[in-house]
Amino acid sequence: MSERPSPNPVQKVGDARIDIAVRMTGAFGQPGLFGNAILINLLMPLLGGHIMRLGSMNLVASFPGAKMQHIHRDNPHLFEDFPHIGPALPLYAINVSIPLIDIDNSIGPTAIWPGSHRSPSIQMSPAAMQTVPFQRGDCILMDYRTLHAGSPNVSNTVRPILYLVYGREWFFDGGNHRHRVPLDMLLEDILALPQELHSLMLRAHQQVARIKQYALA
Fold first, then answer.
1. Which of 23, 94, 113, 177 fits as disulfide partner to 182, beta carbons 3.0 to 4.6 Å?
2. Residue 33 half-sphere exposure, CB side, CA atoms within 13 Å?
3. CATH 2.60.120.620 describes domain 10-182
4. Residue 201: alpha-carbon gap to chain centroid
5. Rounded alpha-carbon distances, angstroms, from residue 113 to 3, 59, 143
6. Domain ranges of the chain
7. pLDDT tens-place string over residues 162-180
8. Cα–Cα distance for residue pair 210/182, rounded to 1 Å
9. Model-level pTM?
């Protein structure tokens, strides 16, 4: 499916790993998931304290036999031409990961290099890598600049993790979502959300408008 032409919700992101832009219906369309009051109240001060946007909702699955993923940031440092500026800037986006099954070390939790959001380099020592088993429904928050990688899946179980990216009002990850819709929710479902979530979901509203514009062109 990842070989289909754009717009394609499925992308290959490594050996035996796929990234799926989730359709926000059913359980994935519940405000208690992406607009959870506890989560919003925690994130808002970290992202400026006024307005933030949900930028994307996607699911990454690693299949049995998946090897160690390449070390990467979800987005390059801002102002890449000035390598010491990006690491020194305040937090601008947060990746919230939620496992959909219990994940132990055999299934392949996400490996993280703590403090790497302040490093201009992507060259990290394997000894500095940390992995933590986590349970279904846990919530892990990560600075969008943090270096990480999916660890090997040596089990017989598919490992699905849901990722929600929240950012400052001006930020949008155009790199990872250039060829697909990052928030797949129908306009009528967006408008039916509680009023206090309309600002959070502005990106989804804009995506609907963009798709309609292309369809009419």
1. 177
2. 19
3. yes
4. 15
5. 31, 21, 11
6. 10-182
7. 999 999 999 988 777 766 7
8. 12
9. 0.90
